[in-house]
User: What shape does this take?
Amino acid sequence: MRATIVGIATGTPDGGVAVLRLSGPAAQAVAKEVIAGELPPPRRLLRRSLILANSQEDALVVSMPAPRSFTGEDVVELHVHGGRGNVQEVMAALLAAGATAAGPGEFTRRAFEHGRLGLEQAEGLAALIGAQTAAAAAQARRLVAGELGRRIDAICEAIGELRAEVEANLDFSEEEERIAEDLPRWQVTILVFLEELGGWLRRFESGRRAREAARVVLAGPPNAGKSSLFNALLGHERAIVAPLPGTTRDYVEARVAIGEYEAVLVDTAGLRAEEADPVEAAGIVRSREQVAAADVVIWVEGADAPPARERPALHGLVIEVENKRDLGESRPGWLGVCSSSGDGLEGVVEAIRRWFVGDGEEPWIGLARHYERASEAVAALTTAARELEAAAPLEIVAFQLAVAERRLAEIRGLSAAGPVGEEVLARIFARFCIGK
Ligand SMILES: Nc1nc2c(ncn2[C@@H]2O[C@H](COP(=O)(O)OP(=O)(O)O)[C@@H](O)[C@H]2O)c(=O)[nH]1
Ligand SMILES: [Mg+2]
Assistant: This one.
């Protein structure tokens, strides 16, 4: 019989309340052993005393019998007072009653094994627990809710239908005419699949951006007001501002919220050609490195200065900002700001935000594994389309369609499509905390 596991389900045992969760065939028996009195009826949270080694603990207990529980097994949750000492004592009582301590991700893994969750939903849970921003959490919740899973099921079914049709023609390969009739329709169908999957890959990419912090580098000539703009965006004086050119010697970075997203803002030493002292020169080398690694470059020049003579090749999203607009305007078309008063700052924030939202399609969470499998499905479908075009044997076309189906099904971890290897599962669930 499978072990009945117990884990602390709340993030920290030092909260006001801690939740211990039992899952497995003996969950109810183990709980009964510790509770004075009856186990509450299913799905009702009732107050019970727990008998501990030297005292009693006042708890709220809920029982969720299989299969309608998170893991698909019998589950009992005990809500007890928080605090390490108390939680350890309750834990000890449950272990003494026959439960085994859960490993990282073991509850979620059981949920996956009992078909309560697709693998991508399990990964979504890990992402939700690890989400550092509201945007990341929102995406993770959608993954957990099964949005991607439903689309995968739908497209796999459609690819499967096409494959069945192609396979049905395998035996009639001499009937060239019939196949010639179906061919254009098959090709169009594959193109529709490719378009859909191409959209997924784009949305995975914007999802990745939304979850990560963008590296936003402020660069430009000395004295343009880069450090002033950096401080203004941060809302406090972090970088040194001075009227002397060459004040910022090394780069300075800080995290800043960009609406619901997050950015690492980097202030750099001004770029100038004319010779600087060795320290400033070293700073300039670093500035160039920062610019090269940037997702977004905010190129700053001051309204009181002539156009910069030196401007490195910029890539990524480039935002041209003219600072010191209180002193005039000499670069029409640039975003104008006045770092000293804060005028125009919202425009800069909005421009950075565009890096995250991209072309407006709603971003999806796409973990690296999802992106890889979907890309492999795209490659297989592309090959299938090319082979149809080249009048290759239909077996080969059907094979490529099957590969595409299998790659997509692997995102969900479905065993019908050939089980996802133990190694992959172990890697995914090892990332969880204990108790999840
Ligand atoms: N009038 C005006 N002066 C500014 C503004 N922003 C910065 N400065 C001044 O420009 C000088 C250089 O600023 P700083 O932020 O150190 O420039 P950096 O070398 O590009 O980092 C300082 O004397 C700032 O007070 C602005 O919006 N208006
Ligand atoms: Mg500076």
Observations:
- The first strand starts at residue 5 and ends at 8.
